[in-house]
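Extended Data, panel c. Modelled sequence:
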Amino acid sequence: MSSSSSMSPPAVTVHNLTKKFGDFTAVDHISFEVRRGEIFGFLGPNGSGKTTTIRMLLGLLPATEGEMRVLDIDVTRHPSAIARRVGYMSQKFSLYPDLTVDENLRFYGRTYGLSGRALKQRRAEVLALIGLERQRNQITASLAGGWKQRLALAAAIIHQPELLFLDEPTAGVDPVSRRNFWRLLYQLAAANTTIFVTTHYMDEAEQCHRLAFINNGKLIADGSPGEIKRSYMAGQVAEITCEHPQRALRALRRMDLGEVALYGDRIHVACPDLNQRRPEIEETLRRADVGRFEIRMIPPSLEDVFIAKVRD
């Protein structure tokens, strides 16, 4: 982020934002800021309030309570004032499948007020940036999932928005396409586009400049990935490998340790007094007949922290 960006008003400011649907509270008095030129990750499980928050910030859904400013505009009072300054890529594939790649970009460009030579030039720029030049005349329905995802991003940035909202943009996309997509996001951020992205992939969260965790409508943590990990149980996570991990998992979960979770064939144990309880853990593993085992202390991962915060 440039120094000029850090001196500008935040791209997004939210204070006590709340959304209720009848007796159900979807978003519950959340507050956070998104700085200009950063990639801000908004994390949470399905149904946690991520999409509802984005729809309020875009002026598509009225808030029940609270304040929100987007690009220094009061969204509650002037929801239409931000329309051409932001881009939005929704969870649902929103392009026209029977149009070509280029026709979709032409349509979205005109929707945002581009025309003539400016639209033609911008289409060429976006196709080059996204890597879709060879597919420009291909029918959108025939594109593979990763290419459709790129086209949706291209449509969202055709008008060069200052702020880009991406709602679960890589859901259901293969790992290689996800990695390539994030390379594109870093290119956009380097060009001073602020990016607000929701995800439930922890490996993607690690790539954000700053994060906020939401669960059941409540904000449960925020900060940079490093700050969030350092703030919770630093040095109090153990990784256990053994010959029979499922057997070990069952035995450890009976100990009331705190958080015990399986990551592939490894077990993570997180609790505040882990060092003191290590002899007890070793004895439990021996009694459970898990075979040879190894315990090593590791820094907490974002997933460790998120699971523990949700539990708390």
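The mean pLDDT is 90. This feature is highlighted in the accompanying rendering.
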